[in-house]
Amino acid sequence: MPLLWGAALIVLGAGLLWGLVLSPADWQQGETVRIMYVHVPMAWLAMGGYTGLAILSVMSLIWRHPLADLTARELSPVGAAVTALCLATGSLWGKPMWGTWWVWDARLTSVLVLFFLWLGHAALVRAFDDPERGARTGAILALVGIVNVPIVKFSVDWWNTLHQPASVTRLNAPGMHVDILYPLLACALGFSLLFAAVVLARTRAAVMERRVRALQLARARREEGVPA
């Protein structure tokens, strides 16, 4: 954990300094392009994190792995937070570029649906007195919602939207200059490391909380003379 936190802070700090201060402005968008250094990594983490949530859900439903349940439970609030940041920064970026804060096009609407899926999972796994029942129900929701991730990714290709098509993933000819691409990738790596550090820290805290509760329950049973 200390190494992960340290790497996250160093890489993210360097990436944000590079992108927000040292990189050039875009020839069309001007200084507003700097919103991209937060918006794009948040979008990637929103989709990648939900894919991870679906993998954890498969592990939970098939192998009944308790750590998968705990990690999924702690992942969903973090995923909802990065998706909210994606929507907020996208709105800030859209106002000067499109002249409006929001449009109901395919990309924006599908990301909003993704945000609601994150919130739904976070609420559902905490809605039952039986944690195992909540984990099973949340896992089913996560697997149903995974169909939205390719919709988010390919919506700009399948439908006519205001949102620009993919620029970075065109490996044969990326749609941006390296002076903008490299700091963007550095920010994406830094945010990814920070995302992983936060999720792992939350999961470790959840494991310790469960252990403490088990010890308290065992102590209470001993005091009452009930076999543990």
UniProtKB/TrEMBL annotation:
Segments forming domain Cytochrome c assembly protein: 6-163
Q: Mind telling me which residue stretches traverse the membrane in this protein? A: 43-63, 75-94, 106-128, 140-160, 180-201
The record ties this protein, via Pfam families, to:
Cytochrom_C_asm
- GO cellular component terms, semicolon-separated: plasma membrane
Q: What is the membrane topology listed in the Swiss-Prot or TrEMBL record?
A: Multi-pass membrane protein
Name its cellular compartments.
Answer: Cell inner membrane; Membrane
Picking any one GO molecular function of the record gives: heme transmembrane transporter activity
InterPro entries, from UniProt?
Answer: Cyt_c_assembly, Cyt_c_biogenesis_CcmC, Cyt_c_biogenesis_CcsA/CcmC
An example GO BP is:
cytochrome complex assembly
> Which keywords are on file for this protein?
Cell inner membrane, Cell membrane, Cytochrome c-type biogenesis, Membrane, Transmembrane, Transmembrane helix, Transport
| Chief location of this protein within or outside the cell | membrane
Q: Which family, according to the similarity comment?
A: Belongs to the CcmC/CycZ/HelC family.
What is the annotated role of this protein in its UniProt record? Required for the export of heme to the periplasm for the biogenesis of c-type cytochromes.
Q: Which PANTHER family match?
A: CYTOCHROME B_B6 PROTEIN-RELATED, HEME EXPORTER PROTEIN C
What name is this protein filed under?
Heme exporter protein C
Q: From which organism does this entry originate? A: Neoroseomonas soli
